[in-house]
Amino acid sequence: MPNQVQQHIHCSVSNCHYWAQGNMCHANEILVTSDSLSDTLPDRIDAPAAAQIQQTPVSTCMDSCCKTFVPKGSGKANVDGVINK
Ligand code: SF4
After folding, report:
1. Residue of 18, 29, 78, 85 to test ligand 1 pocket, by largest number of atoms within 8 Å of CB
2. Residue 68's closest CA among 43, 36, 35?
3. CB distance 68 to ligand 1 below 6 Å
4. Which atom of ligand 1 is nearest to the CA of 17?
5. Residue 24: CB within 6 Å of ligand 1?
6. What 3-state DSSP class applies to 63?
7. What is the pLDDT of residues 5-48, one digit of tens each?
8. Domain boundaries, the chain
């Protein structure tokens, strides 16, 4: 059996649907991209479509964002194909 890499994403955005105690992200995958590209993509384009998205270099961390963010209770958690682990 191949070794599996266990990765943890730490996040303090506590009003996100995927956020969990201890500042953990429980999304099974996320998409981090540039603010400018994120502004142009619909909610349904997210981590499952990452391989089809153009590269988006940025200058500072402030130019990037988590596109997978979904406000808790918004009812939009199932739009992008990302699931809770
Ligand atoms: S989906 Fe993004 S914003 Fe939401 S908890 Fe995970 S890393 Fe944070």
Report:
1. 18
2. 43
3. yes
4. 4
5. no
6. helix
7. 778 999 999 999 999 999 999 999 999 999 999 999 999 999 99
8. 29-66
Q: Cβ(31) to ligand 1 under 6 A? A: no
Q: Three-state secondary structure along 3-53?
A: CCCCCCCECCCCCECCEECCCEECECCCCEEEHHHHHHCCCCCCHHHHHHC
Residue pointed to by tokens 């939009």: 76
Grouping H, G, I as helix, E, B as strand and the rest as coil, residue 71 is strand
Q: Are the C-beta atoms of 79 and 25 separated by less than 8 Å? A: no
Q: Which atom of ligand 1 is nearest to the CA of 70?
A: 4
Report the alpha-carbon distance of residue 68 to residue 64 in Å, rounded.
Answer: 12
